[in-house]
Every structure is written in structure tokens, then in C-alpha cells.
Write a structure and sequence with these properties.
The protein has helices spanning 22-33, 41-44, 83-87, 109-117, 163-176, 178-195, 198-229, 242-254, 279-295, 326-329, 347-358; strands spanning 48-52, 58-61, 123-131, 136-149, 152-161, 237-241, 263-266, 274-278, 302-310, 313-320, 362-368, 372-380. The protein is an alpha+beta fold and 385 residues long.
Length: 385
């Protein structure tokens, strides 16, 4: 049921925290159930449809809302709650004021769409909800429409799952862009070798091998991501050395085009620790951390990778001298968000997904203009996976 008015004076970092009490929510809900204001339409439309009051609390929801409810909630439990709280948004529980009141809510498409509607203007926005505790991402397109019922102002919210649309766009971009570029390079070398003197061949074999490695790596990255999101990954834990993992990832990207005019090195004081984990997934995380660091660098700058032993845990870290602006920080780890253009933004998302859903670890980052940016991934030394 709805929270009581004791929350009305709680602080907020974005939208107002005030809430209506239980009795008020029941009264407003009756405006829709008794009068049948929306007729049979709500349950006939192929998307989630609900109504929120001036405090952004749900007072009506159609049957479709059951498709997106989190952790055991039932449709009847939605009354009085805010959208992020019924969708399982991880930020909705970070502040006493709930959904809409954290710094992350300032970049939430749904909160903005509702607030715009409350000014009397309909709105439509895309919204990413990162659901706790598994970091599952829910991609929604949200339409908000202001409506007046019995002299009171409400907002009708329609939400459509566009996750498949976003995934298709990203996959098409990768095959049409990244993989095409590599394949084009291979084709160029193949044409050259047809006409080359045998004495000229040796110098190009390394480039061909590198391009083949990049092609396989791009395909493997997508296969792992798809299986991870579908909860189909099978873990294969084995005994590993942290320095060997770092060395493998660094060598993978030392000759990669993203490292051109940039330096990539392993910290001289990096600890070499024996741990148990899935080699393929850990390698994918480290490669994504390194590639992300290189992409954030300017020509002539250096990316440093390291490892630190911490009692029964081990921390891999990657430093780059760049600074992540405040507005971008709010989106880090979200699927599809990137400052690098359409179809990007899967690297940091994959880091968090693989680490926290499968490898029992934790991913964080710090950033400042003075110290640059450090991404950290911590794992247990001994795994029970």
C-alpha cells in the first residue's frame, strides 16, 4: 500500500518527495474503478497503462502491468507506489523519498515525461530501468498524457517494451560497422596477396592474423552478451593467475586500432594472485575495461591496468587520464548509452552484467579532472560458482 504522509518532508535531489496517504490513494483509485472512466480500453491495449496522481503515485493500472512487475509484486500492490518502485528500479530504494528523488532520477525519461505532463503538455521519451538485484535492463518507450477526472488532474502513462528493437539496432550496427570494417581490411590484404611477390608476403601475415582476431573477438563479445542477458551462460571455473589475465587482455588491445597513438601498460606494482574464476568471462571484462579506457584517451595519453590483492578478494583496475562529465556519470553501465555514437555503449554495461550477475563481483568507478578515471572490478579469490 501507499506510504504514509510522514515522507512528505523528506529531502529530494530532483522531483518532489511528497506523497498522498493511503485513504487519499483509495479515493482517487475509486474515481477510475467506479466510474469506468477508461472503459475496456486499458486491458485491450498491448502495453502497460497506468494513471498517476500529482505526487506521481499510481492510482490505476491495467492488467498488462503484471508483465513488468518486480520481485513478487501483484497488480493490486501498485496502488500508491511510484513507477520506478513497481518496475524494480535499483535507484528507487536509494533515498527515503523513493522513485524520482535521487540524482539518477534527473536523467530518467519516465520521470521527465510525467513531470512534463503535469505542466499540461503530453510527452514521449525513452527510459532505461536498471532493475535490482541482477542489473537487468528494461528498455521502455513512455507516453504521458495529462487528463482531468472529477476536477482532479492526473497523468496517463503508457509504457511499451522496446528492448528487442534496441537490441536489433545495436546488433545491426555492429555487423554493418565494426565487423564490416574488419572484413574489408581482410579483403584488401587478400587482394594484395594475389598480386604480391612472395618476398613481400611475410610482412602482412601479422596484420591478417590481427584482423582475424578482432573479427572473432567482436563475434564472441556479442555471443557472450546475448547468452548473459538470456541467463544461458554456463560458468567454467578454473585456477587462474591475475597477472596472466592482465597480460592477455593488454596484448589483445596493444595492437588494436583503438590503441593507435596511445600507450597501454601494466602497472609495475600489480599483484599476481591465484584465484578461481571463469577465464572467458574475466577476460571479456578486462578487455572491455581496457578498450573503454583507450577510447576515453587522447593521442599521446596512457592507459594503465593493474591488480591489487585485498584479503579474500582481488581487484582489477584500469586508469585513464580522462574525466567523465557529471551528466554522463548518471548513465554509466546502462545498456545502449554512449557518447561515442549510435549502437555503442555495450562495454561498461557488459562489465557490470558479467561481473555482478555471474562472477559474484562488484564494479565501481571514480572520476575527477585531477585524477582521471578508474574503473574497478572486485572478485572473490575463491569462487563457489
Amino acid at each position: 500500500m501507499a506510504r504514509q504522509d510522514t515522507l512528505s518532508k523528506k529531502p529530494t535531489k530532483f522531483a518532489p518527495a511528497e506523497r498522498a496517504g493511503t485513504d487519499e490513494i483509495k479515493r482517487q483509485a475509486s474515481l477510475f474503478t467506479k466510474a469506468k472512466v477508461l472503459g475496456v480500453l486499458p486491458d485491450a491495449v498491448p502495453c502497460v497503462l497506468f494513471v498517476v496522481n500529482e505526487h506521481r503515485q499510481i492510482v490505476f493500472a491495467n492488467e498488462r502491468i503484471a508483465d513488468v512487475l518486480s520481485n513478487g509484486l501483484r497488480p493490486s500492490d501498485t496502488l500508491g507506489r511510484r513507477p520506478g518502485e513497481v518496475l524494480g528500479c535499483g535507484h528507487a530504494s536509494e533515498a527515503d523519498g523513493g522513485c524520482g528523488t535521487t540524482q539518477f532520477c534527473s536523467v530518467c525519461g519516465m520521470v521527465h515525461a510525467v513531470l512534463t505532463s503535469q505542466t499540461g503538455t503530453a510527452d514521449v521519451r525513452d527510459c532505461r530501468v536498471v532493475r535490482a538485484p541482477d542489473n537487468e535492463t528494461l528498455e521502455l518507450r513512455v507516453w504521458t498524457t495529462p487528463v482531468e477526472v472529477a476536477g482532479e488532474k492526473f497523468t496517463i502513462v503508457a509504457a511499451l517494451d522496446i528492448g528487442h528493437e534496441k537490441r536489433r539496432e545495436a546488433l545491426e550496427y555492429i555487423f554493418l560497422h565494426d565487423i564490416y570494417n574488419v572484413a574489408y581490411g581482410l579483403r584488401w590484404y587478400a587482394d594484395f596477396l594475389k598480386k604480391a611477390d612472395p618476398n613481400q608476403v611475410t610482412g602482412f601475415t601479422e596484420n591478417i592474423d590481427r584482423l582475424c582476431g578482432e573479427l572473432i573477438d567482436d563475434i564472441d563479445a556479442q555471443r557472450i552478451l546475448i547468452r548473459a542477458e538470456n541467463r544461458e551462460l554456463l560458468l567454467r571455473p578454473e585456477s587462474l593467475r591475475t597477472h596472466a589475465l592482465l597480460q592477455d587482455a593488454v596484448e589483445m588491445y596493444a595492437r588494436h586500432p583503438v590503441a593507435e597513438d596511445r600507450q597501454l601498460r601494466i602497472d609495475e606494482e600489480a599483484d599476481d594472485v591465484e584465484m578461481v574464476g571463469d577465464r572467458t568471462l574475466l577476460r571479456r571484462v578486462l578487455c572491455n575495461m581496457i578498450k573503454n579506457g583507450l577510447e576515453a584517451c587522447r593521442a599521446g595519453e596512457t592507459v594503465t591496468a593493474g591488480c591489487t590483492a585485498q584479503d579474500d578478494r582481488v581487484e582489477f583496475w584500469v586508469h585513464n587520464p580522462g574525466f567523465i562529465p557529471r551528466d554522463v556519470q548518471m548513465h554509466v553501465f546502462q545498456r545502449f548509452f554512449s557518447t561515442k555514437g549510435a549502437g555503442r555503449g555495450l562495454g561498461t554495461y557488459s562489465i557490470k552484467l558479467l561481473t555482478e550477475r555471474y562472477l559474484r563481483g562488484q564494479v565501481t568507478f571514480t572520476t575527477s579532472p585531477e585524477e582521471g578515471t578508474i574503473f574497478r572490478a572486485r572478485y572473490p579469490v575463491s569462487s563457489k560458482v
